[in-house]
């Protein structure tokens, strides 16, 4: 008996487009996921990495949030959106979500071979403080948190809003862990000074 991948894809796509109030937001995030995963092979050699058990501190909220962010939980519970945006609202939400994703991609491309999906020190790792990293210390998280919160609110489901919040908290926790790790590996004089100079997540705020 052969596995029908097209049927699975149809069910997944149908879940998003029937539960989310617009196909546009679903398409934006599915395209982002495909491109992000596809580019994950482009990274430098890892020199040192945070232990897997420690990483559960940020992985767990991101995993739970990601599950809630999909349409299937709300669909199984029979929950409906708290509000429904009109066409203008959806377009604005889509533009803002794409802006967040674009900012995240700018951060990833600017980081180049030093990017990693986990907390690691790459070979020849150094502090990057130009481009988006001159605005915030974690532009990838800034862009994704912004885009996900906008989309979660636009969809109006309790699950997507809660999922976006949990993912945001997980990314914030991961950012904090990265900073402790990199301060030790790259030196307080280098990375610590950078943290005291540039905001963490929100641009144009006081560094903390």
Automatic annotation (TrEMBL):
Keywords, alphabetical: Membrane, Transmembrane, Transmembrane helix
Transmembrane segments: 20-39, 85-106, 144-172
Keyword Transmembrane (UniProt): yes
Chief place where the protein resides: membrane
Membrane topology: Multi-pass membrane protein
Record localization: Membrane
Lineage top rank: taxon: Bacteria
InterPro entries: ICMT_MeTrfase
Keyword field contains ATP-binding: no
Name of the protein described by the UniProt record: Protein-S-isoprenylcysteine O-methyltransferase Ste14
């Amino acid at each position: 008996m052969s596995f029908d991948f097209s049927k699975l894809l149809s069910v997944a796509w149908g879940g998003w487009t029937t539960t989310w109030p617009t196909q546009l937001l679903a398409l934006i995030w599915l395209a982002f996921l495909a491109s992000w995963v596809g580019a994950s092979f482009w990274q430098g050699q890892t020199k040192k990495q945070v232990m897997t058990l420690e990483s559960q501190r940020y992985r767990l909220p991101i995993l739970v949030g990601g599950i809630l962010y999909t349409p299937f939980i709300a669909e199984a519970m029979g929950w409906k959106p708290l509000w429904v945006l009109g066409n203008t609202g959806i377009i604005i939400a889509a533009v803002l979500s794409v802006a967040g994703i674009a900012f995240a991609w700018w951060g990833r491309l600017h980081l180049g071979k030093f990017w990693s999906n986990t907390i690691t020190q790459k070979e020849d790792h150094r502090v990057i403080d130009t481009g988006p990293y001159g605005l915030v210390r974690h532009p990838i998280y800034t862009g994704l948190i912004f885009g996900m919160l906008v989309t979660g609110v636009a969809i109006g489901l309790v699950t997507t809003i809660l999922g976006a919040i949990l993912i945001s908290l997980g990314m914030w926790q991961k950012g904090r862990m990265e900073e402790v790790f990199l301060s030790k590996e790259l030196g307080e004089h280098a990375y610590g000074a950078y943290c005291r100079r540039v905001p963490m997540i929100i641009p144009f705020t006081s560094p903390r």
